[in-house]
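thought: fold this chain, then report.
action: predict
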Amino acid sequence: MSDTQQKKPSGLRPGLRYLLIGSLAVNFIIAGLVLGAAVGNKRTGDRPPREGDILGAYTQALTSQERREIGKNIRDHHRELGEKPMRPREVLTQMLAALQAEPFDPVAVQALIDQQSDIAFERRKIAQGLWLEHVSAMSAEERAAYALRIQEVLSKRKGPHKRN
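observation:
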């Protein structure tokens, strides 16, 4: 027998094999997207917005100039008090050191969490007070327009409505 007659045909041709693998990959991607869309988006239009959504909407509904002005006022306020803002990197460094310490000290970690929470709460109170001053200085028409912009921002954040 000659060499050509003894060779068995080998499965798929290389080009067809790559096409099959590519098709399978595309199918997995599509299935993942469909599954992610179905399972991952649990927000529905009939639930009230979360507190973070509402507070963020107050800021987003302001014009960029108003946001810059309020931000400048916040920074000026902290400078007047002589406060150095707690930087995220410093907070992270402190927390990482506490988490890696041997022996682990949950009291120290809780103290860091409490400190961060207190600082965030105080800064938020200051920001809200300055925001309120800004809104108080608006005319009735400006406040009404601002309220409409808040509603628009919140309405854009609603998830899909429940299907019947």
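thought: worth noting. Helices lie at 3-6, 14-40, 51-60, 64-81, 88-100, 106-136, 140-156.
final: tokens above.
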